[in-house]
Specification:
about 325 residues; alpha/beta; 8-stranded mixed β-sheet; 12 helices; about 35% helix; globular; binds adenosine-5'-triphosphate; binds magnesium ion
Length: about 325
């Protein structure tokens, strides 16, 4: 059974200015033991898609399609079932989550909380587990007594990862876990995530706007644009031989890790992604696409399989010949 499955998932926000289709017809699966990367510029729908797994979306979001965790339909779960799933089956480390640590509580208190709540253990066993978790993420167990302000950014991010692992989940969703960190520390945190995946056999969804980071840490990669997956396949295929012009631009961009400017403007692609509430006709990428032709301005390409991977581009077949 697949750990996580998105089956034709669309997510639309109702805003004062109308409907915002932030995610459109996404199908994606994450098997246990695999790391799946989601790439794309700001606003492409990465966080919206992954927030749906634990039903963390605001009330204004309408979800269609199916999201299955170990075969169970997430949207059909009762609140009690959902509570059992959170922490114990699937966890999310959010963008900038390290700033969410409580400044007036010691690390051990914050790490012990989910363990005491969700696992059947007493305070002593919880404290032992906290020490183990800290060592697992490369911090000395003695740091348990520290307050968040006594830790560096990278150490705080490690604590967030330890917290995510506290209840031994099967699925870890890491939403740009390293963008707030400097280059060296980012590389260390990414190494840590990769080794944890190998040791613990989790399924991981790893979100980044940086395709080169995903290529080195993931088994498979999905590239999102304007709410849709426009290319997906093995990380090496998508990075080394991208079929969609947008994937090609991201692969060629080599954003410097940690350089915030690349978040909004990958090198070589002029302009910005469209606002999902106001998509252009045809292929949503056509206004920025160097390879666009007439058909791209009138008809939106659907994902099609090419040689073991999927791409949504009228001209993808021409790249392969
Ligand atoms: N609560 C909301 N109401 C209306 N629109 C929203 C809401 N939340 C997000 N959006 C819109 O949905 C789109 C997708 O947002 P999302 O946060 O999923 O993008 P993202 O790919 O995670 O971007 P980033 O890289 O900046 O984190 C954006 O255009 C955003 O403006
Ligand atoms: Mg996001």
């Amino acid at each position: 059974m697949t750990l996580l499955e998105f089956d034709d998932v669309s997510i639309t926000y109702q805003s004062r200015h109308g409907r915002v289709p932030a995610v459109r017809n996404v199908s994606l699966s994450v098997p246990l033991g695999q790391t799946v990367g989601i790439a794309g510029e700001s606003g492409c729908g990465k966080t919206t898609l992954t927030s749906s797994v634990l039903r963390l979306l605001p009330k204004s979001a309408e979800v269609t399609g199916q999201i299955r965790l170990n075969g169970d339909d997430v949207m059909a779960m009762s609140f009690g079932q959902l509570r059992a799933v959170r922490w114990a089956q699937a966890v999310v480390v959010f963008q900038g989550a390290m700033h969410a640590l409580n400044p007036v509580q010691r690390i051990e208190t914050q790490l012990a909380e989910p363990i005491l709540l969700h696992m059947d253990v007493g305070p002593k066993a919880a404290r032992t587990r906290v020490g183990e978790l800290l060592e697992q993420v490369g911090l000395p167990a003695s740091r348990a007594r520290a307050y968040p302000h006594q830790l560096s950014g990278g150490q705080k991010q490690r604590v967030m990862i330890a917290m995510a692992l506290a209840c031994q989940p099967q699925l870890l969703i890491a939403d740009e876990p390293t963008t707030a960190l400097d280059v060296m520390v980012q590389a260390q945190v990414l190494d840590l995530l990769s080794s944890l995946v190998a040791d613990l056999g989790l399924g991981v969804v790893f979100i980044s706007h940086d395709l080169s980071v995903l290529a080195s840490t993931c088994d498979r990669v999905a590239v999102m644009y304007a709410g849709r997956i426009v290319e997906q396949g093995s990380a090496s295929d998508v990075f080394a031989r991208p079929l969609h012009p947008y994937a090609r631009a991201l692969a060629a961009a080599f954003p410097r890790i940690g350089d915030a400017r690349f978040r909004y403007a990958p090198a070589g692609v002029p302009g910005d992604p469209p606002y999902p509430g106001d998509l252009p006709a045809g292929c949503p990428f056509h206004p920025r696409c160097p390879a666009a032709t007439d058909i791209c301005t009138t008809s939106e390409p659907m994902l099609e399989n090419y040689d073991g991977r999927d791409a949504a581009c009228h001209h993808a077949g021409e790249v392969l010949v």
